[in-house]
Amino acid sequence: MARLFIIFFLLPFCCAAQTAETFIQSGNAKAGQKNYNAAIADFTKAIQLDSKNGRTYFYRANAYNDIKDYPMAIQDYDRAIELDPKNPFAYFYRGNANNAQQKFADAITDITKAIALAPNADMYHYRANAKAGLGDHAGAVEDFTKAIALNPKDPSLYEYRGVAKSNLKDNEGAIEDYNIAAGLDPKNADLIFYRANAKGNVGDFKGAIADYTAATNMNTKNAEAFFYRGNAYGNLKNYNAAIADYKKVITLNPKMPNLYRYLANALSNNNDKKSALEYFGQAIKRDPNNAELYLFDGIVRYNLDDREGAMTDFDKSIDLKPSSEAYQNRADLKLSAKNYDESKQDADKAIELDAKNSYAYITRARAKLELKDTATALTDLNLGIKMNPYNDYSYVVLGNIATDRKDYATALKNYTQSLEIQAGNVETRLRRANIRLKAGDRVGALADFKKMADTGTSDDGFYIRMVRSMMKARFDGESLPILNALITKNPKVSTFYVGRGAAKQSLGDANGAILDYNAALKLDTASVDAYSNRASANLDLKDYTGALADISKAIKTNEGNEEPYLIRAKVRMAMKNYQGAVDDYSSVLFIDLDNTVVFAYRGLAQSYLANTDRMNADFNYALKLEPNNDEIYYLRGQARINTKDVTGACADFKKAVSLGSKAAVEEAKKYCK
């Protein structure tokens, strides 16, 4: 942070005899000219003539401070304080000499004494620096706030408070401070760079890019700004721009950590396989014994699904110069090939070569999970997190483990932790949205879907998966603005029309929905989703014949897709073919046993057949898996009405309402009298 400029007090110079005061004035004059060694000599002579003057030790300490001889400075500050214990600047400057030597606790003690004597903004500023040095970022924020109260026009105070807030993961608060600082100091390239980092941390990649661009315009040699702008472009899937930035960094700082890894990933994701392979291929021709080049070429080939070529590259890299990173990447490759034993062995070797390679612990944990060694896998994950608590993927893996165990509360906690580290990771956010749905938090899930749509990724494949999740959750009109925006952005993706049709249908516009499903089928005549959803709209219009015809086409196109069976079950329920509905729900569960709500729908169908034991078994199992799902309680309430259990139905409808069900409100009024 900012360096303290020590103030020398210049006194009137008179042409008297060589007294102590004469040497003090001469020393101050030389210090003012930055001739610190000569100043020290004069102050020393003054001390020889008068060793009881605290000011002289103070001035000489300042001169020692300016030549960075901190031990001698502290020694003189000690004597100055001994002779004049009420001099706040002696404590203050000694505190900063301790700061310079990273003796942060001593610095805090000294500056606190200075503040007690005569507080000013600089004192709070430098005590904040010391607190930050000890990792007390909350204390630093508190001190910067006090400094701002005393000097609200100093942009550096807002800038550094923003840094402290960033260290506390309060990136939104940091951005607010950087905005104020930028208003006071608009040409500060470092400030704009810090703000860009904070924007990237909250997933505002477009805003981050704008700030990185401004920072590089002000400082064309800021390699980090180009590097992080490349990362932001990569998050938006703009790989051409990312590649250009990474290549720029190579000209400025070719030893930037992870530079070539990110370049390799961008090249391999750029849909230009030839160019991706050429870059490192040409580098290998120029330097055929460079192990790192084979490593990065292997990463490119791995990302391009050339697993055989990637394995050859990783093997060659290890033969030339065994490295933890090469073993780790080969372990990942073997893991993806389901060669779990060898993957674990490579991860072991990666850890042996670099015990601080946190990613290797994650890879080994994943291999152990596949080998059913869950206990030590969790140990590895926790070790990886301890070494690198900011590795967001560690928490994703923990979330995945919890999801597999159907421990949705723990899964949600871990996905949230991951997103606090990397807010712009849409894949993790989609996982969290789906878990929130399983936990009955539809409001939170919808917020995640909106955030994903706002992030700005150009990966239509991701958005297709997102839309399908929204459709599965049967969101009402809340999803319509998201889908309209997606269609405007890319009107040639059939799934977007299917999603919008489902939103329209949920709002009661079955005819408008059918128009969207027809548009989807024009773009993709084999769209199972479009046929299934058009069948659902026909069901709403009581066109059972048309609905069954569409379902037959859907099943013929892909008999392994659960959605057509779900729709046909609803058609059969409407036609009072309850056994046929039970059969269809059973088919869905054969395809996807994790579709918990289907157990509830099958339970409802069983209630019409008076199969009370089977009905109860289905509902009990569904609620065991998702105890906070309002739809399950609503459906059980309906089933209990069918079995004449009005008291139980009332309890279920009330529970559904408490969990947010709109459909259960009228039912509760009707049966809870």
Automatic annotation (TrEMBL):
Stretches forming TPR repeats: 20-53, 54-87, 121-154, 155-188, 223-256, 257-290, 291-324, 392-425
Domain of life: Bacteria
Keyword Repeat: yes
Signal peptide (UniProt feature, chain positions): 1-19
Nuclease among keywords: no
Keyword terms: Repeat, Signal, TPR repeat
Matches recorded under Pfam families: TPR_1, TPR_16, TPR_2, TPR_8
Database matches in InterPro entries: TPR-like_helical_dom_sf (IPR011990), TPR_2 (IPR013105), TPR_rpt (IPR019734), Ycf3 (IPR050498)
PANTHER family given in the database record: TETRATRICOPEPTIDE REPEAT PROTEIN 6, UDP-N-ACETYLGLUCOSAMINE--PEPTIDE N-ACETYLGLUCOSAMINYLTRANSFERASE SPINDLY-RELATED
Protein name: Tetratricopeptide repeat protein
Lineage of the species this protein comes from: Bacteria, Pseudomonadati, Bacteroidota, Sphingobacteriia, Sphingobacteriales
